[in-house]
Amino acid sequence: MTGFPRSPRLMRGGIVQLDPASGSVLRIIALQYNPDSLSRSFQVQDTGDERHQRSQPLRFKAPPVETVKVEAELDAADQLEFPDAYPDAGQVGVHPQLAVLELLAYPTVDQLVAADRSAAAGSLEILPLEAPVTVFVWSPSRIMPVRITELSVTEEAFDPALNPLRAKVQLGMRVLSVNDVGFDHRAGGLYIAHQRRLEALAARAGTAGFAALGIGGLT
Question: What is the DSSP code string of 121-137?
């Protein structure tokens, strides 16, 4: 027997892609290694122009624009130790895992061909290609619909055939709120569930007293 029987199960962060119409799962991408850090930023959505900011300074017009950045590491070393179990690692390195992440930024070939045929048929208006609903999962407490905004790849080691054996992928994501997609969209429902979890977590933190701040009150 290996390991400790009472060791906690390691959760891995990852991405789930859903069909926007049916909600069926198209792909689940589990990160090979959890990043050591995750950066998040928030841009508060106030009431707009300066005139409204002065007359309504305590109002929000929408949830904040939240962006998330992570760096995923890929390494074929473990798989190369077991060539019978992982033949692809010896043949193409981490190419398949890289391709899965890179395709998050691509429309499918079928979508491109369909758009071209519509243009060739004389369609006056060609709607932008709708991507799958992309969901970033970072524990059960953080399940957020996102849009990939940037993706960069650094390949660091190669086999004799120039297949990458080790790589880092930096992912930038924008959390999609109901202000972006509406309440009726599948991503909108996922966002509402995300904010409800956030509010529930905040409720568990409780509140401090004025004594913790070294004051007796605000007057």
Answer: TT-S--PPPPPPEEEEE
CB-based contact 101:169 (threshold 8 Å): yes
Signed CA dihedral, 90, 96, 97, 99: sign only: positive
pLDDT band at 79 (very low <50, low <70, confident <90, very high): confident
pTM greater than the 0.70 cutoff = yes
pLDDT computed for residue 133 by the predictor: 96
The number of C-alpha atoms within 13 Å of 203 and in the hemisphere containing its C-beta is 6
Q: Six-digit token pair at 62?
A: 């929408």
Residues 6+ apart with CB under 8 A from 72: 31, 32, 33, 35, 101, 168, 169, 170, 171
Phi first, then psi, for residue 72 (nearest 5°) are: -95, 135
Buried-state track 11-48, b at ≥16 Cβ within 10 A, e below 16: eebbbbbbeeeeeeeeeebebbebbeeeeeeeeeebbe
Paired tokens of 131 = 């991507």
pLDDT, average across residues 28-49: 88
- Position 59 scores a pLDDT of 77
